[in-house]
Design a protein that fits this description.
heterodimer; A: two-stranded antiparallel sheet; globular; B: 70% helix
């Protein structure tokens, strides 16, 4: 019995199909880059798009192969396959595909068309997919680093551009700090519970909290609170929540525009998958801690600050990339509402919101990236002026994305926002209600700066008459994103249904794998507690 | 009706037209114009069957359409109209045609987008009035913001960008608060109903007496099996609000009702607009293109009052009666009336003047509404329709003169009556209609609502009358400055009078001005049903002959009479057991209806006592 657990079978390896496929393709793209002559490097981009297509097929077939048995905990409970992981992997793949599609023309304009760029995006995507599936703090940490390190490189990809270099070094230094803090949090959790598996941590913590008559209890509570704060800090840094957001505007402005898009959707989504998984699976009992603030109250403060400060700072920006950086900070605050709400409506909202945010924000960055042409940088607000006359379809798609980001129906953004607010209201708590009011006010604030972009596109006159054209691949990506935005707005039912299944996974799961259970059942666990 | 989903048709046809317009090339301006006009006219004709096949005697919703939409959220595609919605929809479709027709020569650039946005706007507005599902209502409510933003922002004048964003942000603040209110109601509903199912079923039978589709719709809303995720049905919410638990308390605690009232009221008050929230209106009206101003004044503002009549009064009736609420709402309405009128008097710009007159007129509508009696609410609805007609007409007239002279400053004009006699005559008609001259439409609404207000509290009515006097002053003064005397400005010497096209779009409005003024009964018949049901819900004691001191705070004491609503007078317990067998038309609760009819004509016994009580409190 025990041996079965020790050696993962080949059958279990098959569960990793999508990730393995993507890793191999990423290596292949690297090789291709070397083989292809200068000027033909665009082919690597198509290869990466094909890679994502194959990975999607792999993901779908894995889903259908396992959907009866979900959730599956495999590889020493390191890796989980459940609806939550599948939905986030789908979102991440969409984000990566759109980012690659909009990169092709942009890199040509920057004269940096090389294969390693795409290969790095694919590696980062692998990391993200593991983040969505990780069920062990160490596993999650390694995946996080895989994603983070590749993205550091991507941010600084424009070697001759000072801003890009500055952004990369800032992002790298702060990112390294935050990773270290996160790791410190993990070590404290391990010290307290002796576990790194999320469900087991949850179980241990509940026992520790229950044993409140002992004198050490308060000390342990302090330790738990501290480790929650440290882990939270590391994660909130990745999603750029206030007060850990300082890096975001600089990194977003300096990075190549498609990478800005990738960071604001892919990195954020994956980090949120991890944050939701850790907080809701491992720390559900620490929502409130005796005599100490639990993570709910901390996150309420963070969410309130994030939404408001992000929005207010975005209002004054004249650089679209910076503006969208602040806007994505405020969106990070909105997503936190789902984690805070503590009911299934809110969790479902979190997933729907991230899905809609991903397609809309990636679309917005696709448009901004299309503005980079010849000698025009395209990241100032006035570069959007009169876009409706240059390329009406592009302007209309941008309008759809922006209205969606502002949460105005009938777009996907509204459905996501609606569910997040509904989650808060359903919790029926005075502080949650206040937070909901603050959140809706923030929705209004956010429209102010989106309207600046809309105004520039539709009302202002052109300042230059250079045509804005799209690469076919990015045209397909943007049209897909726009149609999906509207479609989810009108008929979100299938997406909500799947997200509801996914949010059902946000509770501690003990092994239900295909492999016979050889792990201690919950009743046995207390014996392992340190005396 | 013959199986045709007519409400869906009326709602979505304009949008379909907008989509077709997108495919007509930009350079074909004539074709675009002809198509947009023809399509708008077509939409109007499609909406006409609503009037002809509307059954005035039937209670509740008609032309019901009810389909599955987002089961996970509990939102359904539910459409249905009562008399109130019907009158506003007809106003919308009519003014839609006129607004589009009036832009024929006024708009010369970006013609295609202009008509696309106007038609999209039309869908949003009609949708708001036909939606019977709060979620759907909200979606339509918001859909309409974006086209309006562009209409003001692209084709507006001077400070159009400022006005457009101001309009958008103000309305958005309101609508997100409404959204919170909607969410809260949605979550209260299932629990509240499960605690008082029998009474709820009794209530829906009274609410929708003899209206089988509506009873079925409301019953499904409350059924755990058929709608496991709750319901957003507006009428189900009203039925919940009308039901009382066994100890006579409202199913939504009064304290919570007050909060919900605040959320909805702020949202709708911004749209109306009521006094402290009105500042977007003069800007938006002034800077919008003519058609935009017409639609803003005639229809968008009515969405605010419509919201009050749909949500606040029927669903949050206990809060409406609450003295604290009345003490805030009524003074604000009165301030709106007087302040709007005074501001109008001080304006130099014609459009701004008319915009401020809207603040004043809508103040009347709010005052009449919160009199919470049939006359007041009938008058309020009439006032809304009349305001749509006369202010719409006035904005069109300003548009006509603006097209010729490109200025709206009153001081630029004078003595126009000599050069433009027809224009002067039509302007006179709308001016007098706006003032409320008897035999013209404005009089009917103002008379009814002031009568209702007087019943409720004669002090309020006194302020209202002051507003009417001021209204006459600023409108007649405007008329005098523009049309009388000699032509002093050289530029006005060769102004052309109205052409046939302009006459054509004023004709239906002038017809309505006289028709409603002389014989308002058809419209009153249509809105009487909704009015009496709103009064029953917002102020059930009105129809009871017993004297009820409605200044008592319902939050602290339980309802004084053991049978609070007229619906539950018909012995709730026995009949709730035999619900499946009895056909709804033969339920004993037919009594309140004739009683209400009586009261409608002779409300004195109940009302004479009330103002005295009110005096002391106010």
């Amino acid at each position: 019995m025990f041996l079965l657990q020790t050696f993962p079978s080949w059958r279990q390896i098959l569960f990793l199909m999508p990730e393995l496929q993507l890793t191999m393709f990423a290596c292949l793209v690297l090789v291709l880059d070397v083989l292809l002559p200068r000027g033909k490097k665009t082919f690597t981009a198509y290869a990466s798009l094909i890679a994502i297509a194959f990975t999607s097929i792999g993901l779908i077939s894995t889903y259908f192969a396992t959907s009866k048995a979900l959730p599956l905990l495999i590889f020493y409970e390191m890796y989980v396959l459940d609806y939550f992981a599948f939905s986030f992997k789908a979102i991440i793949l969409i984000a990566a595909a759109i980012s690659i599609a909009i990169s092709i023309k942009y890199l040509d304009a920057e004269k940096e068309q090389r294969g390693d760029y795409y290969s790095l995006i694919l590696f980062a995507t692998v990391g993200m997919m593991f983040m969505a599936s990780g069920y062990n703090l160490l596993m999650l940490y390694v995946s996080l680093e895989l994603m983070a390190i590749t993205v550091y490189i991507l941010v600084g990809y424009l070697k001759t551009n000072d801003k890009s270099n500055e952004a990369a070094i800032k992002y790298f230094l702060l990112g390294a700090f935050s990773s270290a803090i996160f790791l410190y949090g993990i070590s404290l959790i391990y010290a307290t519970t002796g576990q790194t598996n999320l469900s087991r941590i949850a179980f241990k913590i509940s026992i520790i909290i229950l044993a409140d008559d002992s004198k050490v209890s308060l000390g342990v509570n302090y330790l738990l609170a501290l480790s929650v704060i440290l882990i939270g800090t590391g994660l909130l840094f990745k999603v750029a929540a206030v007060p850990f957001h300082m890096w975001a505007p600089d990194a977003y402005e300096g990075a190549p525009t498609p990478i800005t898009g990738f960071m604001s959707v892919g990195v954020k989504t994956a980090s949120y998958a991890m944050l939701a998984r850790i907080f809701l699976v491992a720390f559900p009992t620490l929502r409130t801690i005796k005599l100490l603030p639990g993570w709910t109250s901390l996150l309420i403060i963070v969410a309130a600050l994030t939404m408001t400060i992000g929005n207010i700072a975005a209002m004054t920006q004249k650089n679209t990339k910076r503006m969208l950086a602040y806007s994505s900070i405020s969106h990070a605050g909105f997503v936190l509402l789902g984690v805070i709400s503590g009911n299934q409506v809110g969790y479902t909202g979190l997933i729907i919101y991230l899905l809609s945010y991903t397609i809309m924000n990636a679309g917005v960055f696709g448009v901004i990236a299309a503005l980079r042409r010849d000698d025009i940088k395209g990241d100032r607000l006035e570069h959007l002026n009169g876009l409706v006359k240059k390329n009406p379809a592009l302007a209309v798609m941008m309008l759809v994305f922006l209205i969606g980001l502002a949460g105005i129906p009938p777009t996907a953004g509204f459905v996501g926002k609606y569910m997040l607010f509904a989650g808060l209201i359903k919790a029926d708590n005075i502080w949650y209600n206040r937070l909901a009011v603050l959140a809706v006010i923030n929705t209004v604030l956010s429209f102010y700066y989106y309207a600046q972009i809309i105004k520039a596109m539709f009302i202002e006159n052109m300042i230059d008459d250079k045509a804005v054209t799209l690469h076919p691949s990015s045209k397909i990506a943007l049209v897909f994103a726009a149609i999906l935005t509207i479609f989810i707005g009108f008929y979100p039912q299938p997406f909500i249904e799947f997200s509801e299944l996914a949010s059902g996974n946000l509770a501690p799961t003990l092994n239900k794998g295909t492999v016979p259970v050889a792990t201690p059942t919950p009743t046995q666990v207390p014996n392992l507690l340190p005396k | 009706m013959f199986g045709i989903p007519i409400l869906s048709l009326v709602t979505w046809l304009p949008l379909l037209g907008a989509i077709i317009l997108i495919f007509i090339p930009k350079s074909q301006k004539e074709l675009l114009r002809i198509f947009a006009n023809a399509w708008a006219l077509f939409c109007f004709f499609v909406s006409l069957p609503l009037v002809f096949s509307f059954d005035k005697t039937l209670k509740g919703l008609q032309f019901i359409e009810d389909y599955q939409w987002i089961p996970s959220l509990g939102a359904r595609y539910q459409l249905g109209i009562d008399g109130l919605s019907l009158s506003l929809i007809m106003l919308t479709t009519l003014l839609g045609v006129i607004a589009i027709f009036s832009s024929w020569s006024a708009i010369s650039e970006r013609v295609k987008e202009y008509y696309v946005f106007l038609l999209m706007l039309q869908t949003g507005m009609i949708g708001t009035f036909v939606a019977a599902d709060m979620f759907l209502f909200y979606v339509f409510w918001e859909i309409m913001l974006v086209p309006m933003y562009f209409l003001i922002g692209i084709w507006g004048s001077d400070r159009r960008l400022y006005s457009a964003i101001k309009f958008f942000l103000y309305t958005l603040v309101g609508s997100v608060l409404i959204l919170l209110g909607i969410i809260k109601l949605y979550f209260i509903f299932p629990d509240a109903i499960s605690s008082a199912r029998g009474i709820y079923e009794e209530t829906i039978k009274t609410m929708a007496e003899g209206n089988q589709p509506m009873i079925a719709m409301l019953a499904r809303a409350a059924d755990k099996n058929l709608s496991p995720n709750g319901s957003f049905n507006i009428w189900a919410m009203q039925a919940m609000a009308n039901s009382r638990s066994l100890n006579g308390l409202p199913l939504i605690p009064v304290n919570l009702q007050l909060w919900l009232f605040a959320a909805f009221a702020i949202g709708f008050a911004i749209k109306v607009p009521m006094f402290p929230f009105h500042t977007w209106l003069p800007d938006a009206h002034t800077d919008a293109p003519t058609a935009g101003s017409v639609i803003l004044a005639a229809i968008l503002l009515k969405m605010g009052t419509y919201g009050f009549l749909r949500f606040n009064l029927p669903i949050l009736g206990d809060a409406c009666r609450d003295q604290r609420v009345l003490n805030i709402v009524i003074p604000l309405a009165i301030i709106g009336i007087v302040y709007g009128a005074l501001c109008a008097m001080a304006q130099k710009d014609m459009k701004r003047l008319i915009a401020y007159s809207s603040v004043s007129h809508l103040g009347f509508a709010m005052l009449g509404m919160f009199a919470l009696n049939p006359n007041g609410i009938n008058g309020s609805i009439m006032q809304q329709i009349n305001h749509g007609i006369s202010t719409g007409g006035l904005f069109l007239l300003v548009g006509v003169i603006y097209e010729r002279r490109h200025t709206r400053l009153i001081s630029e004009y004078g003595g126009l009556a000599q050069k433009m006699p027809n224009f002067a005559a039509i302007f006179m008609i709308f001016t007098l209609s706006s003032i409320g001259l008897p035999l013209l439409n404005g009089f009917i609404g103002e008379f009814l609502l002031l009568r209702g207000t007087f019943e409720a509290n004669h002090k309020w009515a006194i302020f209202g009358v002051v507003g009417i006097v001021l209204g006459a002053a600023y409108m007649l003064w405007l008329y005098q400055r523009m049309f009388f005397g000699e032509i002093e400005n050289e530029k006005n010497q060769d102004l052309q009078d109205l052409n046939w096209r302009e006459m054509l779009y004023f004709a239906p409005l002038i017809f309505l001005v006289f028709a409603i003024g002389i014989y308002p009964k058809p419209i009153l018949d249509i809105i009487d049903g909704p009015t009496s049901s709103i009064v029953k819900q917002a102020n059930p004691y009105y129809f009871e002959k017993t004297q009820v001191n409605w200044s008592t705070n319902l939050g602290q004491t339980s309802v004084p009479s053991p049978t609070p609503t007229p619906s539950s007078t018909a012995s709730p317990t026995p009949s709730s057991e035999q619900t499946p067998t009895t056909s709804p038309s033969s339920t004993p609760s037919a009594t309140p209806n004739p009683e209400s009819k009586e009261n409608n004509s002779t409300p004195k016994p109940a009302s004479t006592a009330k103002p005295e009580k009110e005096e002391k409190k106010f």
